[in-house]
Design a protein that fits this description.
The structure is a single chain. A 4-stranded parallel β-sheet has the order 1-2-3-4. By secondary structure, it is of the alpha/beta class. The protein is globular, with a radius of gyration of 26 Å.
Length: 191
């Protein structure tokens, strides 16, 4: 049994060493090619910027330099909505603690989404650029709605700026750019 355990122990040790050597080889390869990798990354970034800038220039020529800001303050939006929908409020369908009342949470999401989409519809013929503030969505835990609204704005032909106010040192800013400006992102630019 001891010989069998020692043999298995040696095999595991050898496999571990092989894995570590393999990882070291990959790291060395990446380090030796890092200038190329950085250049390729920069070229891709420049290409996306160039396309975004070309798009922005085209939109500004067509519709002018105005930007519509979408800063949906939910408390104000909800007050207007309540005024317009007094019968629902009077029936008591929207009362209660938001943590306990899923209907209210769903309603809040619908109110916010409807307002934002109506806003996009109202401005899309007058402006070519929209700046959407993320803080109002983050405060309501509606980050997914933020992305959906940005995608809808982009599908309407607007140049979309994600108003994130994320300024930091180089590598952190690079991570924000990766998160919000990749090829599948609805954002053309971020603040």
């Amino acid at each position: 049994k001891n010989k069998k355990l020692n043999k298995n122990g040696r095999i595991i040790k050898q496999l571990t060493l092989n894995y570590v050597n393999h990882c070291n080889n990959i790291i060395n390869m990446l380090l030796s090619n890092r200038n190329t990798l950085i250049l390729d990354s920069a070229q891709l970034s420049r290409r996306k910027k160039m396309n975004a800038m070309q798009r922005l220039n085209r939109i500004v020529k067509e519709k002018g330099p105005l930007i519509a800001g979408l800063d949906p303050d939910f408390d104000k939006i909800k007050q207007v909505w309540i005024t317009q929908n007094e019968e629902l409020v009077a029936d008591g369908k929207l009362e209660g603690d938001p943590e306990k009342n899923r209907t209210l949470l769903t309603c809040n999401r619908t109110i916010m989404g409807t307002f934002c989409q109506d806003y996009i519809e109202a401005v899309k013929e007058s402006v070519g650029v929209i700046k959407i503030n993320s803080a109002f969505f983050e405060a309501m835990q509606m980050e997914d709605l933020y992305w959906n609204i940005a995608m809808n704005a982009q599908m309407e032909g607007l140049y979309v700026i994600g108003d994130l106010k994320r300024a930091d040192i180089g590598n952190t800013s690079m991570e924000y750019a990766k998160a919000y400006l990749d090829a599948t992102s609805p954002f053309d630019a971020i603040t």
